[in-house]
Amino acid sequence: MSGLAKTTVLVEEGGNQTRKRSFTHASNEQIKKDLNTKKIKTEEMSANEKKSNFSVLNPNSNGTLKMSSTSSMSKPGATTKKLVIKNFKSKPNLPENYQETTWSKLKEAVIAIQTSKAIAYSLEELYQAVENMCKHKMASQLYVNLTNLVEAHVKSNIEQFLSEGMDRQVFLKRIDDCWRAHCRQMIMIRSIFLYLDRTYVLQNPSIHSIWDMGLDLFRHHIALNTLIQTRTVDGLLLLIERERGGDAVDISLLKSLLRMLSDLQIYQDAFEHKFLLATERLYAAEGQRLMRELAVPQYLAHVEKRLREENERLLHYLDPCTKWQLIHTIERQLLSEHLAGILSKGLEALMDGPRSQDLTTLYSLFSRVKDGLNELCNHFNAYIKKKGRTIVIEPERDKTMVAELLEFKEQLDNVVTACFQRNDRFLYSIREAFEHFINQRQNKPAELIAKFVDLKLRAGNKEATEEELERLLDKIMVLFRFIHGKDVFEAFYKKDLAKRLLVGKSASVDAEKSMLSKLKQECGGGFTCKLEGMFKDMELSKDINITYKQHLAATQESGGLELSVYILTMGFWPTYPPVEVRLPAELTRHQDHFAKFYLAKHSGRKLQWQATLGHCVLRAHFAQGNKELQVSLFQALVLLLFNDGDNLSFEDIKTATNIEEGELRRTLQSLACGKARVVTKTPKGRDVQDRDQFAFNADFTNKLFRIKINQIQMKETSEEQKATEERVFQDRQYQIDAAIVRVMKMRKSLCHNLLISELYNQLKFPVKPADLKKRIESLIDRDYMERDKENPNQYNYVA
């Protein structure tokens, strides 16, 4: 039997409504199947008859043909009956005008969707109609009809946007409403024509999907209309400009319309370029105006605020693809164009504060733009050099120079750490700038740093604990590294260290040795060997004094006077000019006795006594009672004269002691004009004159038993400073000579320029070419080297 086998099954839906669906069974051969002992027999169907049967579509039947079949239940004991299902005797055909009738119904539904009216048919019925048309090869015409219908509707919407006098806000609202309605309609239409979209459209890659077809038609007829597009983009730009100006605008409208442009794929061509040009014009004018009106901190805060606002716009309504160009435009117009202006106008004020928060903002903003950090670093370097030079060059600031430099360096370090993210470029810039300005004034910074260290290491300094002193020494070493003339520092440091060691004014031996180890680590053992020798002399002297006291105790020759002697190696210690003074016989006898004792142990050595470095403790008898006076040797020599007479003239004292006149005047001032006046002067006054008379003050009173009478220190005169500098200069001559001989001995023959270059590499202190030339001439005169006979610019080593 050929044909289609068809059964109908009753399905209950809703209330009492019964809907029938048809299921088609087809097979190429007869299939036997056991269904509760009942057999359903199906005969083979021919392939050309294998087609679905469709009922006539009418509103009442919802596209199905109602059929019913009943079967009576078998009674117990009755015989079993067989149910045989047979094919239709004739092939089912489509109703006449099926395509036109079905499309008419679909068209009516689409127009109802487009006009926002109720659809007369159920969506299931419409979907089934589309499916049926597709299965009967009507899909192509169906797609064309649907496209024409949607296109006609889109065209009908154009007219409302072409009126001239429409307000921009109203226009944008209409466009947005039209777009939203179009999207809703296309979603609804696509749900009905989904079978068409998933079969015919997928099988034909050259045609758009129903959704893309709707977008394409809206884009072509509305969005790409020159007048509509211009008005839309201009309206959007106006809204964004108003929002940037602080006005309240409809953000949802902006977001919807910009999303529309993105969905229609005309965002970049139609909107983005104009938007970026408008942004550039706005911020170019704003940057120029605000640079004139605002101070730098306020300007930086404004730039930061603008960047934050634009990032929020990107989050709220702008397309993400605009981000890089938008932010780059703002950075260029508000920052890149004004880098030098911002730094020239405000960096110095920010650094002088220092205004850490503003500097952090400055660094953060400048790091966003090309060459921003380079420009910042250059101005930062120039600021350091300018301010540092004022500290170093001005002589009136010498007393506070080192303290100011330490404070300045600490301030810069804090700025780089807290504000500039400890950027290595800025750390190097600090070092380079300090090394530049601190050597603008030759030798003086090295001298003042040495004196500052002396001040901090003296016993009288109670400003800091040991930990604080150690940190301070570390900071001083940082300044020390920047100095070119380290030999100048050594000369002054050695002189001050000698005073601290000999007079016992050192605050801490540990601190002294810590400073020495820092210098050794920085400059090497050659730099500190003499300083270490000074400490070694002090330790050996203690041992010698112990041995000498044991010797005196053994020989019973103490004589009531206790003598302590420091034996100083002449090469380690500063050079002191020999001073000849008249000592009391008792003191001379003890000196000679010690010399005899020492030379007996160390033959071949020579002792030279330095009276300027000696100090004594005297017992004095006053009306109030006995006191002990801690004085220098010169003060002691003057006071001992009053054992032989109560009144002495200036000339008498000078003749008896043979002390140099200037030193004697300062000594008498300390005794007669200081806080502890154990001697009276006639006439009274601060200065000591040649005709002044001096008398022992028996009525002197003081609550202390041991009284220290400070020597009036002569301020270091320019001559004394020049003498120290001259010694440094002389040492440098020897170093230059040694370097020239070393180079020439190794090279044998060398031209002038190469020799000068080699010397600059070897010498660690600043030197001028003229000084090098003088030393070369000196060595030629002394036959260490000679000029080449054929080439005067060539030198030959003389063995």
Brief description of this entry?
Pfam families: Cullin, Cullin_AB, Cullin_Nedd8. Belongs to the cullin family. With 799 residues, the chain is mostly helical.
Q: What do these coordinates show?
A:
Helix 1 runs parallel beside helix 3 and helix 18 runs parallel beside helix 20. 58% of the residues lie in helices and 7% in strands. The termini are far apart. By secondary structure, it is mainly alpha-helical. It has 29 helices and 13 strands. The strands form 5 sheets. A 3-stranded mixed β-sheet has the order 5-6-10. InterPro entries: Cullin (IPR045093), Cullin-like_AB (IPR059120), Cullin_CS (IPR016157), Cullin_homology (IPR016158), Cullin_homology_sf (IPR036317), Cullin_N (IPR001373), Cullin_neddylation_domain (IPR019559), Cullin_repeat-like_dom_sf (IPR016159). Keywords: Ubl conjugation.
Largest sheet: 3 strands, mixed
Kindly name the structural category. Answer: mainly alpha
Tell me the Rg in angstroms. Answer: 55 Å
Q: What global shape is seen?
A: elongated
> What is the average of the pLDDT values?
82
Q: Provide the helix percentage.
A: 55-70%
Strand order of the largest sheet: 5-6-10
Tell how many strands the DSSP assignment holds.
13
Poorly predicted ranges: 1-75
Number of helices: 29
* First-residue to last-residue Cα separation: 133 Å
- Taken as a percent bin, the fraction of beta residues is 5-15%
Pfam family, one: Cullin
Protein name: Cullin-4A
Family: Belongs to the cullin family.
InterPro entries: Cullin (IPR045093), Cullin-like_AB (IPR059120), Cullin_CS (IPR016157), Cullin_homology (IPR016158), Cullin_homology_sf (IPR036317), Cullin_N (IPR001373), Cullin_neddylation_domain (IPR019559), Cullin_repeat-like_dom_sf (IPR016159)
